Amino acid sequence: MSVTELASDRRERREPPVETAARAPAVLARKPGAHVSVDSTADTSRSSRFVPFFLMPVIDGLALVTLILVTGMGWFGAVYAPTVLAILAAEGQHRTRFCLRVSDQVPRIAAAAALPLILLLPWKPVDGAALSALLATCTLISFRGGGCLVLRAVHRRGWWHEPTLIVGTGSPAFDIAQLLDEHPELGLRPRGFLDRGSSGRSGAPMPGPLEELGEVVRRHGISRVLVCSPAISEAELTSLLRACRPLSADVCVVPRLHELGMAVPRGCLDEVWGIPLVPLRHHAHTGAGAKVKRALDLVLGALLCVVAAPLLILLTAAVRVSSGRRVFFHQERVTRSGRSASVVKLRTVAPGAQQNWSVSEQQCTRLGRWLRATHFDELPQLLNVVRGDMSLVGPRPERPHFARRFAGEIPRYADRHRMPGGMTGWAQVHGLHGDTSIRQRARFDNQYIEYWSLWMDAVIVARTLATVLVGSGRFRSSSPGGSR
């Protein structure tokens, strides 16, 4: 069904028509029962998908280089400019917004310009620091303002646009399609609609499973996905986001209760001509983030192996004297993408006890109870970290049999395997180990994955060390059935 036919259908229902230009979309059927309205002049070039990722960093970089050359900052400028760029990137200020109002960005730009000075002044006083921050703020705002004017002009003339797919066929979806058509300066050209089910009217909404999203995004070079259907559940929305992540498509959602100003914090919002949108962030732990995390695991893991070597030698000797058995044992655990890894631990109990899901305090030696309470029995896992089997921080890996069992019983348990298993994790620093709920552990593990950052890893490591040093770790035990 074309957008022109949709407009006729809306007139029959006394709804505002969707204005259409000469580019009338046609219907693309991927398979029986799955259709998506796609612009017949769909752009086959995908270079436009990468422009938004570099536009703002380039503008900010030019602004700071100009500031350094004009003011002659010298060595200070060489440190100051990259720091400001890093802060702006960390705050999400390098994402190209739909709404190009520079006034909304002033507070964050000013904070990014002032923070490096606050950090550097105690170590190296800089003359005119306040003036430097003010000049940096004004320069960044001026360059961004000029860049926005140029970008609007480029969009208005149709020289560059971003192919956009609208998920939903209700009134909000039609309203946004009409606004995008009326305001080309926004730079978003709708390629069509994707939705599930049918309204029951002949040719009204275009039916099609949401599972088609990833394929449609890939085939038509979609760079923006706008979700405007209030009927989409949280689980379906999560699937939408994951389908777009590998394709570098940005997903924005029209929030429910968006008429209420307090419903969503303004700092989290973008907008399309008065209609608020919540941008959904990409996972930081993929791509470059995963490489940085692995590099830190390798460096810190090797360093900790050296530092912990004397303690580990003493512990192995103590275990040998205490139990008279082999000091180490290997156990298969499920880590990233469902792969198995052989995890090394110090022996604390009889080998037969390890066949159960849990270990009771009575099954451990006196030394074993202390090792499990302080988590020192897991020190050999530093070797797993160095080898790449595990990470210092991540969801605690489980044995294959129980991982399969929990995945079948607990929603989203298998989602924990999106990252490598870790020696410690977000669930563990909240006391969720031993006889605690597996469901709650999965919730914390998935929260960690969704909001991962290097700072979050640092917080988890610090809290883990504090637990060990103050001796507040409790014995890790549970019943064989376990708490779900």
TrEMBL record:
Q: Where is the composition biased (Basic and acidic residues)?
A: 7-17
| UniProt keyword Nucleotide-binding present | no
State if Transmembrane helix is listed as a keyword. yes
For this UniProt record, the keywords arranged alphabetically read as follows: Membrane, Transferase, Transmembrane, Transmembrane helix
Q: Please report a single Pfam family linked to this protein.
A: Bac_transf
**What membrane topology term does the record carry?**
Multi-pass membrane protein
Q: Where in the cell is it found?
A: Membrane
Q: Where is the Bacterial sugar transferase domain?
A: 293-469
From the Swiss-Prot or TrEMBL record, give the protein name: Exopolysaccharide biosynthesis polyprenyl glycosylphosphotransferase
Please give the organism: Haloactinomyces albus
* Source species taxonomy: Bacteria, Bacillati, Actinomycetota, Actinomycetes, Actinopolysporales
